[in-house]
Automatic annotation (TrEMBL):
<keyword id="KW-1133">Transmembrane helix</keyword>
<keyword id="KW-0812">Transmembrane</keyword>
<protein>
    <recommendedName>
        <fullName>Integral membrane protein</fullName>
    </recommendedName>
</protein>
<dbReference type="InterPro" id="IPR046740">
    <property type="entry name" value="DUF6790"/>
</dbReference>
<feature type="transmembrane region" description="Helical">
    <location>
        <begin position="133"/>
        <end position="156"/>
    </location>
</feature>
<dbReference type="Pfam" id="PF20589">
    <property type="entry name" value="DUF6790"/>
</dbReference>
<feature type="transmembrane region" description="Helical">
    <location>
        <begin position="6"/>
        <end position="25"/>
    </location>
</feature>
<keyword id="KW-0472">Membrane</keyword>
<feature type="transmembrane region" description="Helical">
    <location>
        <begin position="37"/>
        <end position="57"/>
    </location>
</feature>
<feature type="transmembrane region" description="Helical">
    <location>
        <begin position="77"/>
        <end position="97"/>
    </location>
</feature>
<feature type="transmembrane region" description="Helical">
    <location>
        <begin position="104"/>
        <end position="121"/>
    </location>
</feature>
């Protein structure tokens, strides 16, 4: 397999390593703190920085990026995809500072990436597209990173819900509604 196919996995792996090191050096580990650190690294690096790179490739090297996906150069899809990638780059990086953005960013990222994943599978099955950024590690990345993000966020919310005093559950539910 083409080594370039592993490019999309690079930053999610960096996020995982960063989170594991960060958690490893923490003095006071609680389930909530561990999940929070994992989410900060996931939002900041696996979503934010990864999407900066992806948006940049579509904006600044569109012909090469289209070739890596197995599409013709000059296709107008790239501008729209680049803007979507840039939106998630901004949202992911903003999540490092604004936890109020976590739920919406995670839901949007799951929908966008899983939709892209279905498109990659369709391109492979129905059109034989085996280009490195259409088929191979990219398929794992587009399904696994959002799944991990969602699982971490759900685990954090469940942990916080269990830890909240009884009277705060109703108040927290109203705020989330």
């Amino acid at each position: 397999m083409d080594p370039a196919a592993y490019g999309p996995a690079f930053l999610p792996v960096i996020a995982l390593i960063g989170a594991l090191i960060h958690i490893g050096v923490m003095k006071h580990r609680t389930r909530e703190r561990v999940l929070t650190i994992a989410l900060l690294w996931t939002f900041g690096v696996a979503v934010g920085l990864s999407e900066v790179v992806t948006a940049g490739s579509h904006f600044f090297a569109p012909a090469a990026t289209a070739a890596q996906i197995g599409f013709p150069a000059g296709n107008p899809f790239q501008w729209e995809v680049a803007c979507a990638n840039l939106a998630f780059a901004v949202a992911g990086i903003a999540c490092v500072w604004a936890r109020s953005l976590w739920n919406g960013t995670a839901v949007g990222f799951v929908v966008y990436f899983w939709g892209c994943g279905v498109g990659h599978i369709d391109q492979y099955v129905n059109h034989g597209n085996t280009a490195p950024y259409n088929w191979g590690p990219i398929v794992v990345v587009v399904f696994l990173v959002p799944a991990v993000l969602a699982a971490l966020l759900i685990a954090l919310r469940m942990t916080q819900h269990r830890a909240a005093p009884a009277g705060q559950h109703e108040q927290a539910d109203l705020v989330r509604s």
